[in-house]
Amino acid sequence: MTMKQNLRALLGDKTSQRSALILKNVAASFLIKGWSALIVLLMVPLTLKILGVYNNGVWLTLSSILIWIDLMDIGLGNGLRNAVANYVAQGDSQKVREAVSSTFFMLVVIVVPFLLLAYLAIRFFDIYGALGIDPQLTPHLDTILLVAIAIASGNFVLKIVGNFYMGLQLPAVNNLILCLGHTLALLLTYVLYLAGSHSLLLVVIVNTAAPFLTWAVTIPYTFLKRYPQYQPSIRHISMRQARSLCSTGLKFFVIQICGVVLFMTTNIIISRLFSPAEVTPYQVAYRYFNIAFVLFSTICMPFWNATTDAYARQDFQWIYSVGRKLNLLMLAIFLLLLVMLLVSGFVYSVWIGSEVQVPFDLSAATALYIFILCLSQRYSYILNGIGQLRIQLLCIVPATIVFLPLAWWVCESFGTVSALVCAMCLVNTPGLIANAWKYYQVFPRQQRKRPE
Question: 358-379: per-residue pLDDT in tens?
């Protein structure tokens, strides 16, 4: 057997292992994400019954603010998952340990001053005016927000173990940890409902503390029992490694923070320009159609760091074969969203009854928005895996700058939430086109041959 044949044999074995690992993760993630989706569906009417339409909208708005805390890691989480995938492919356990230790250290350095700044901002700024919330209907908002941010900051540090598992090409484990946190939150929320509570503060505590407890239990299991060779420690903190992670992470950070402005500020905009009560119909439509995005991301997420591994080993044919499968997946997602739109009225009536009315045009705009996100990320997952982030930066930054004034103009001109969602579709379309262009530039069509 020649050296070339030996290399092909080795590559084939690794390709088979990589594909088998993806199939296992996708299968496990389907079960986990299916349960998570059911939890989301159950949580919506449950919190509505506890809080009512207005304060439920306030909670959804606050939860959007909490998502910003995830961005404080300046992209370190995604930088860590790519670093772990690379170092594991190279067989360098020492570098993995340094990456994990340095990431934990950097996150603690970030979160401590942030908590102080958050406290000062909440105490000395008009939170009610900024969010358009009536203090008579939602008292003690400053205390509620402080508690939410404090617990979410703990999650911010601990959840990095999820990125570690994704770097090991085990996204199903990350999904399982998240699912356990959501399950605990649902159970505790149901306890509040049985107790007859209408406290927004208790709902906030339950929904933020439940994930914190699951992450807190996961970390000792992961680094003391399952992967002791990667256990973080102070003596393995490396400033060189931290700089390397920050270099890659900053690109992810800019993309993340722009993404949050584009994707997650909608609740705040609706609350401010319309009313917190208008947040609920939008969230009902969004969570319904987001089932398709959850399905899509469940299948696609394992390909991110599997692509990192394949690219490091120069296994381009495997990446090409993945591209063909993802194209078929997008066709299936389109058909699924179309069917979901056609039956949306019936589903809403069964799911939430007549308490919340969701206009058909809002459902149609939300379905289109979810499809654009799926199609864009069909390309960006692969590009992220190989560190091709520049094109995303060049598109998402201008889109973010344009979005806020466009959103204000659309809301003032048309006066509907549906028009706002259409604006979201518009500003995300250039990024979709750019991602597709870059993908086909890196992996030209003419070089794709079906494996023998």
Answer: 889 999 999 999 999 899 888 8
Report the candidate in 367, 326, 363 with the shortest Cα–Cα distance to residue 346. 363
Residue 95: half-sphere exposure toward Cβ, Cα within 13 Å = 17
* pLDDT at residue 97 is higher than 80: yes
C-beta of residue 289 within 8 angstroms of C-beta of residue 366: yes
Q: Nearest-CA neighbor of 40 among 152, 182, 178?
A: 182
H helices present in 221-275, as ranges: 239-263, 266-273
Taking the CA of residue 316 as centre, how many other CA atoms within 13 Å lie in the half-sphere pointing to its CB? 9
Output phi, psi for 354, to 5 deg.
-100, 5
What's the whole-number mean pLDDT along residues 319-338? 88
CA distance 273 to 419: 13
Q: At how many degrees (to 10) do helices 360-385 and 344-351 cross? A: 100
In angstroms, how far is CA 432 from the centroid of its own chain?
18
State the DSSP string of 46-109: HHHHHHHHHHHHHHHHHHHHHHHHHGGGTTHHHHHHHHHHHHHHHT-HHHHHHHHHHHHHHHHH
Distances (CA, A) of 357 to 20, 59, 284, 348: 45, 19, 9, 8
- Compute the average pLDDT of residues 272-291: 83
